[in-house]
Amino acid sequence: MKRQNLTPSDAADTPSSRRGFLAVAAAGMTGILLAPGVRLIEIAQAAAAGDAVSAGASSKVRWGMLIDSTKCSAGCTDCVTACNTENGLSGGTLPTDSQWIRKIEIKEVRSGRTQSFPMMCQHCAEPPCVDVCPTGASFKRADGIVLVDRHRCIGCRYCLMACPYKARSFVHEPLTHQKPDVPRGMGTAEACNLCVYRVDRGEQPACVAACAAAGHAAILFGDLNDPASEIAQRVASYPTRQIRENLNLDTGVRYIGI
Amino acid sequence: MRRNHMKLLMHQRDDTLRGGIRTGKYSLKACIACHASQTSQSVTAEPTNFCQSCHSYAAVKIDCFECHANKPAVNTALQQVKP
After folding, report:
1. Would you tell me how many other CB atoms lie within 10 Å of the CB of residue A247?
2. Which CATH fold would you assign to the domain A63-256?
3. Predicted interface score ipTM higher than 0.90
4. What is the residue range of B6's domain?
5. Nearest CB to B30: which of A38, A50, A151?
6. What predicted TM-score, i.e. pTM, was given to this entire model?
7. Which of A217, A235, B2, B25 is the most buried (most CB within 10 A)?
8. Looking at beta carbons, which residues of chain A come within 8 Å of B70?
């Protein structure tokens, strides 16, 4: 049998093509736009972006959100759209489609008063999904963000059952073209990750940015442990609610006006 | 690296996901950003691409890219310039 002539050294890019890459990259920097070079320049830029300093999650921080339902506009779904775009979700509404954030409309029957607000993973301090996970895949990061370690997730879906907020979804079908920042795959549970890679970069989650861009600014994101932060001051001075407070989960996502 | 990359990646993925350490050294995204092929823009799409070249030679299946993107992020602003 003839062995395939594909040793690692043969398969690696040849020196001449590497020189070609550098030449094209240099040409791009001097302002000359070459159609095949565009992608190469992107690759070089992506490499530079990876060198940003990140100290890692700290237990001194507790990330949280304060959602003001009086500012949230009924019918506006900008936060949901932003989440789907940011994380590469299909945005479909089939029972098998992943949904990390959804808009809820509630109505008081007697007065007819309606309210609208987004619901997502509440990032509990005592998360039931972590309690029930048989493999330790579902975990709470030091800074309070509840995540799924897809390397360990076996897809048992206990966490979907345990979550009182119906925040978790299960990926039923094979996925392609995932976002580089958001790995997702078939056979694993997933939920709102509070845009953890954006938070680690010092940015706000996508839904918070989208809500502010839409002019509502109904979602406030910040460190609940830092007394100087706006979110901690507002939680200290306004009556805020946790959904299903009676479960004593100490959620990181809090609401005003419900 | 060729011999021990699977152990290093196993260690660093926990530091990244659980510890939130996302510097270039710990970032699979940063690996892919440099090692992606010029022709396919991927590390696994063709048998000669960076990861696939060794893995097809050694007949070892890669599971990483069932969840992780095998291509670097595309800068949409630059993409619009393309003719």
Report:
1. 14
2. Alpha-Beta Plaits (3.30.70)
3. no
4. 1-35
5. A50
6. 0.79
7. A235
8. none
